[in-house]
Amino acid sequence: MRPATAVCALVLLIAVPSPTLAADTTGPSGGPTTAENPFEGARRAEERLSFAGSVNVSWDDAKGPHSDQLNVRAAGGSIQLEGGSTLLAGPDGSTVARRPGGDWDLLWTGAPTATKRPGVDEKYDLIPIDQPAPTMVASRPTHVIEVRQDDVVRERLFVDNENELLLRREQLDLTGHPVHVVAFSSIDLGAQVAAPPTPAHPSDHSPDHLSSVSAPTGLPGGYRRIDAYREKGAVQVLYSDGLYDLSVFQQQGGLAARDVPASGKAVRVGSSKGWIYAWAGGQVLLMRRGHTVYSLVSEAPVDQLMTAAKALPAAGGSSLLTRFRRVCRNLVEPLAR
Amino acid sequence: MTADDPRAGTPAPHPGDALSALLDGELGDVDAAAARHHLAGCPTCEAELAVTSQARSSLRGLPPVEPPAGFIEGLIAGSVPERNAGSVPERNAGSVPERNAGSVPERNAGSVSSSSHDATVTPIGEAPSQRRRWRAGVAAMSACAAVTVVVLGVAAPHDPPASPPLGRFIVAHETEVGAGDPVSELATAVVPVGFQR
């Protein structure tokens, strides 16, 4: 090979990296081969497209694998999901739920959070995966994007090649096994889909916003406090790491045996005992610390949930004076009944 | 004091005993405003305030204790003569001597030489009775202290159960569409939660 040809070949190799090389170049320091945020593209697609289809939700818990099927239709920026219950997400970001009697409850107003969420790329890498052929999901070709934290693949996203719809979303455990999957099993794009009816006057059951709250402004793992609400007897502090939201519900009091569902997995969170429960979308960690009961609800992987929970404070001191006051209160309370 | 703490990961301190002072109106304007600000965002202190307020109301709402019939009369009859024997001798002339007749004269025979029944209330004759009361008082206080220590140290007061509604918490969390797209985020919200108690 002549030197000029060799130089040209080298330049071509550098300037036009192969898909395989792109897929292998990963990690925060490995190279900027990250994809555009696929969730933003999916949100835009769901707002502008009309479609109807079936979605399969599957997840694993201590009892084994579970799955459920639900119907989805979207038009005019509204999305309706029907399964065990019915939810309607409006174009303004609000969420309403239909009660069994047919009336609607407003569960979320769509108001923006007090603090903007971190960017997903602050903690995760979005890596497009090269494939010899598109992966078919609901009979549609998709490309795959992996969401990686350091070298751990947290999620695998299957994005419609034509319209950016997110047709399949897998969350993986640390062994690479999918533990939460939401996937279209069928979809009819461009169908004559009527826009879901918008309830005229739903009952307002949305949480009250709190302008200030006594809670950490951040939790380990890159979770930042973005807002706080009052949720019927509890304070909900909302955190986000850019990909997952984490709700920390705080209540004053103790945990009785009947408050702890039997299907949980007992865990140790620092010096506290806790229980983890899986539901279709994520995990709940229930624990008591000091005189506070925490219920952490999140789509985040269990290891992140546990790390964040360890940093939660034990509110309510046990000074002698405090204990004396509690004793006096306990002596007086029976008299008041 | 503010509920927000600029230091990441560090919550603001709780008002603690200032809550009782707030209820009693003993806090200054600034401290009271700070405490109320903290209460708005702290379920722990809010619950503490509610319970303290309830206990306070319960105490104040207790009916006055009615002494048993004859209690006051008996109390007066038993104590007044010894304290005020000199001033009300007529009223207790018949009772006090009998009460102490058996004990005082023998133990204090040398000092009780007076022919008057007032001899039973002289300082020398009163000393054993006072010592007994002193000892009884000390014993009672010791018993109270012991009970307090046991209650504080052993019988840890229990908090009322919080009874977290996990299913409702999940719905509240999921219906707020987060960083993801609405379909993948809300799809799991319409699936019934299976681990309910």
What is the fold's blueprint, element by element?
The complex is a heterodimer of chains A (337) and B (197).
Chain A: H1 3-15, H2 19-24, H3 38-48, E1 51-61, E2 64-75, E3 78-82, E4 86-89, E5 95-98, E6 104-108, E7 125-129, E8 135-137, E9 140-149, E10 152-160, E11 166-172, E12 178-189, E13 203-204, E14 208-209, E15 218-219, E16 223-230, E17 235-240, E18 245-252, E19 265-269, E20 272-279, E21 282-289, E22 292-298, H4 302-310, H5 320-336
Parallel strand pairs in A: 6-13
Antiparallel strand pairs in A: 1-2, 1-12, 2-3, 3-4, 4-5, 5-6, 7-9, 8-9, 9-10, 10-11, 11-12, 14-16, 15-16, 16-17, 17-18, 18-22, 19-20, 20-21, 21-22
Chain B: H1 18-23, H2 29-40, H3 43-61, H4 71-84, H5 89-92, H6 96-101, H7 104-107, H8 123-153, H9 166-174, H10 182-186
What does this protein look like?
The complex is a heterodimer of chains A (337) and B (197). By secondary structure, chain A is an alpha+beta fold. Chain A has five helices and 22 strands. In chain A, strands 1, 2, 3, 4, 5, 6, 7, 8, 9, 10, 11, 12 and 13 form a 13-stranded mixed β-sheet that branches. In chain A, strands 14, 15, 16, 17, 18, 19, 20, 21 and 22 form a nine-stranded antiparallel β-sheet that branches. Chain A starts with a helix and ends with a helix. Residues 5-32 of chain A have low confidence and may be disordered. Chain B has 197 residues and is mainly α. Chain B is built from ten helices and no strands. Mean pLDDT of chain B is 68; it is low at 1-10 and 80-122. Classes of the chains: A alpha+beta (337), B mainly alpha (197).
